[in-house]
Design goal:
This protein is α/β, with parallel strands linked by helices. Helices cover 37% and strands 20% of the residues. The protein has 4 domains: 148 residues, 3-Layer(aba) Sandwich (Rossmann fold); 115 residues, Transcription Regulator spoIIAA; 120 residues, Transcription Regulator spoIIAA (2-Layer Sandwich), CATH 3.30.750; 57 residues, OB fold (Dihydrolipoamide Acetyltransferase, E2P). It has a 6-stranded parallel β-sheet, with helices on both faces. The chain has a 5-stranded mixed β-barrel with strand order 15-16-17-19-18. Helix 1 runs parallel beside helix 7, helix 10 packs parallel to helix 11 and helix 14 packs parallel to helix 15. The longest helix is centred in the last third of the chain and has 24 residues. The chain is globular, with a radius of gyration of 23 Å.
Amino acid sequence: MKTVSAEEMNKQAEFSDRVKNMMAHRSPKALVITYGCQQNENDSERIRGMLAVMGYTFTENKEEADLILYNTCAVREGAEQRVLGNIGALVHEKRRRPELLIGLCGCMAQQEHMAKTIKSKYRHVSLVFGTHSLHKFPQLLYEALLDDKRVFSVEDSEGVIAEDVPMYRTGDPKAWVSVMYGCNNFCTYCIVPYVRGRERSRQPERVLGEIKGLVAQGVTEISLLGQNVNAYGKDLEEDIDFADLLRMVNSIPGVRRIRFMTSHPKDISERLITAMAECDKVMPQLHLPFQAGSDRILKAMNRHYNQAQYLDLVRRVREKMPDITLTTDIIVGFPNESAEDFEETIKVLEAVRFDSVFSFIYSKRKGTPAAEIDDKVTDDEKHKRFDRLLEVQNRISREINDACFGKTYELLVEGESKTDKDMLTGRTPGGKIINFPKKNGIKTGDYVTVTVNKTNTWSLSGSLTEN
């Protein structure tokens, strides 16, 4: 495991001071726009933390921002195209305000071919850096501001861990805490190992220290984060795994809820299942991507399990946690997936009955083995299968939610509902969203008890239960 040295972090602190002094005559504002997964959101908290130290405040208005930075995702082509479209549209704002600094970072920027595209075709973009250069952001920003020059930093690296990077969080009662970075699995469709590097775990005392600091700030729900959290500890000298870490976090006073993602099925041990069941603060929720039901496709994906093994894992999880909420990821249309292969995916849906799924049509990622496969399946057929999968899962999700009618749950109030300003919203221990009417005295961060009185496919509604 490679950890960024204290000397390097002190060097970056010096660059932060230089930027702050350089911008002292102004009140600079930054807009950080995030695409992708929770790891990207967590990285954006670090970016904002570094910007805050450098004297920046934040805005959601592009026209008043002095810095616009896109933190990007490379998992699917659609996200990349949206970023390129949005960056392209900023050329007019750059012409109107030449002092505006536009940047791109994250997984998309880590790809060499994409960095070259930005360099040649999007000349109004001044700052590009990949995931491995995140901790160097103060230095890179200083260099871009100093001579108004273009700065590119896309290091070819297996990845590092940078501790003591400042964080900027919004006072939410929930917080994501990264416990490890990178992935060693090399699924044939996935770009993550190439842009995030190899698996590397944070020292447990660092993780626990961060969580204790969050609790002191009023955070009560902690979500442990990693590309494959089940692999935590494999690269550490001490004998510790993710089950041990869960028990450590469970013992921290002030933590009321613990969640985590993402889990690879091949790395879920019996020790982890037991720890989940025995730790009272670990919520009954598990995101367990199976990606495809066909053994042939799973082998082509390099997933290291088959359908029977996955279904047996689900059985063992439910045996110890009967009320657990299960969610998953599914890829439809992996190269040369046959109709029979797809039916195996539907078979798993019907057998497991997930509460919800995140499903996607296969997106070719340059540099991955699957991108080289000559695919004979038409886009039309892939979309038909995708529609069928949604039809099956929507039915299952609705049936599961309908069974929640009349049940009472404890919720952590997360704030105002996105669809109705007269309603508040929160999540059950299993992670289901419940909207309920506002009431004087109830605020974000409170815990309340709500009884479900209306069910929908994707959410629930309820009324406060008087204590």
